[in-house]
């Protein structure tokens, strides 16, 4: 994927920061309602993204011009990973993981893990695409991984202290590097949250 398309994809992913922002402003209960609502909406709309026949029916009922719909579909296909064109989109995995984390984990862990998974992933991709010179077999770069680690330290240290920040950032970097199934947008958040919680962050 080109840097331009990667930037579009990451810009869309940055909307995930709405979860920790709402948690900070309105608390846990409001955040659970917010995330649950969007998860239901995403799941309801997902068949229309995946099944062309359903999209065509909606297009005819709403009277959307073919040219407009084709442009929208090209934009979506352009920023989608190959596996997302056949299965669930990253937004669903991200939202499901965020819901689990908001429900089960304490405030600092929730805000830190979701923020790092969102911003760290973007920084790793952008730095890796732009400055990555030392690459691994999976295409990831040393520069991108270091960008993730540094971003994690900057985000997590004010929340949980330097020691815990290093643990969370390192685990997140490893999870991001290996693209742990079922999707990195799911596993990255949970890996950070579990690492911080097991390392002793309880409140």
UniProtKB/TrEMBL annotation:
Keywords: Membrane, Nucleotidyltransferase, Transferase, Transmembrane, Transmembrane helix
Annotated signal sequence range: none
GO MF: ATP-dependent diacylglycerol kinase activity; nucleotidyltransferase activity
Segments crossing the lipid bilayer: 88-105, 111-128, 148-174
Highest taxon above the source species: Archaea
InterPro entries per record: Dgk1-like
Protein name according to UniProt: Integral membrane protein, putative
